[in-house]
Specification:
The complex is a heterodimer of chains A (about 140) and B (about 150).
Chain A (H helix, E strand, L loop, with lengths): L5 H9 L3 E7 L8 E2 L6 E2 L6 E12 L7 E4 L2 E13 L10 E6 L10 E8 L6 E11 L4
Chain B lengths: L8 H16 L3 E3 L10 E6 L4 E3 L8 E12 L2 H16 L1 E2 L2 E2 L21 E17 L2 E14 L2
Parallel strand pairs in B: 1-2
Antiparallel strand pairs in B: 2-4, 3-4, 4-8, 5-6, 7-8
The chains are: A mainly beta (about 140), B alpha+beta (about 150).
């Protein structure tokens, strides 16, 4: 007999006090417009599609500040988090970008953008678990 | 006449950074990424090579300074875009001389803040070699190398 996950899922949902939006841009830079005068890219209209908006729960999944990446002589902290969504959230894929819209318990998270690395689920999943990555500018030495 | 001190290469690279930032409209850093780097930026590095020239009294009056300009962008195209603009900014020339002046100051007894006019001149500049474009994590880097012939203004 399959377990009834209704209560577990409702309990998980009840602690998702933040809200977030996940957007996808399958074409990436390839369909963005390159301005030869400024050297900058401009996104075309409707470049991104919203695949999820609603409650979420964010928490660090590794020691923050321990992973660094150097590129173009600039150093960044690359931190991973778990972002949990209701299991009814579907269509989220690696490369999508999750933005924290509201976060009453940690206002500093609002506006931060996380790149989805992995979206996990399963037959008896209680939540959709996204492994996401946050890049912030590292020390300038 | 006492021997002059070697030319400070730091002042030359600072001047190149200032010129490239002004002419290209993108920030350049001196040996490092500029603070809070945007999507497109550049780096000027002094790399091994070059030489010093002069006479018996002043054996290092002039220097040949080898620099590498790294253009950084989020895509190969963006890096190539800044590479080409930096190249033009550095080498574009008319019959009257180089279009974009590089005003450098030396430290022969004068602090930079006291210098009121350029005391060094970039006598000549030329392209040396290309390091191509490589990818590093989420950015692309385009590398070009140049030689600057620097001499005091007499």
């Amino acid at each position: 007999m399959a377990p009834d996950l209704t209560l577990a899922r409702a309990t998980a949902l009840s602690v998702m006090d933040a809200t977030c939006t996940v957007r996808t841009d399958p074409q990436g830079r390839t369909d963005d417009l390159f301005d030869e005068t400024t050297g900058e890219y401009t996104r075309p209209p409707d470049d991104q599609t919203t695949v999820y908006t609603g409650p979420c729960l964010l928490r660090p999944s590794q020691g923050l500040g321990q992973n660094r990446a150097t590129m173009g002589s600039a150093e960044q902290f690359v931190d991973r988090y778990d972002l949990r969504l209701p299991v009814t959230a579907t269509g989220v894929h690696p490369g999508d970008v999750a933005t924290i819209d509201t976060s009453p318990n940690d206002p500093d998270m609002v506006g931060r953008e996380f790149t989805v690395l992995q979206a996990a689920g399963g037959t008896y999943a209680v939540t959709r678990i996204l492994t996401v990555q946050l890049r912030t500018e590292g020390p300038h030495v | 006449m006492p021997a002059t001190l070697p030319i400070s290469t730091e002042n030359v690279t600072s001047a190149v950074v200032a010129m490239l930032t002004t002419v290209t409209g993108k920030p350049f850093g001196d040996g490092d990424a500029p603070p809070e780097p945007p999507d497109v930026y550049g780096i000027v590095d002094v790399i091994p090579g070059g030489g010093r020239y002069g006479d018996a009294v002043n054996p290092h009056t002039d220097i040949e300074l080898v620099i590498q300009i790294t253009a950084v962008g989020t895509t190969r195209r963006q890096a190539a875009w800044l590479r080409d603009r930096a190249d033009q900014a550095l080498l574009r020339k008319t019959a009257a001389g180089y279009v974009n002046a590089i005003d450098a100051y030396d430290l022969n007894g004068v602090t930079k803040s006291l210098a009121t006019e350029a005391s060094l001149q970039i006598v000549d500049r030329w392209w040396d070699s290309s390091g191509g474009i490589d990818r590093e994590d989420i950015v692309h880097n385009a590398h070009e190398r140049y030689v600057l012939w620097v001499s005091p203004i007499s």
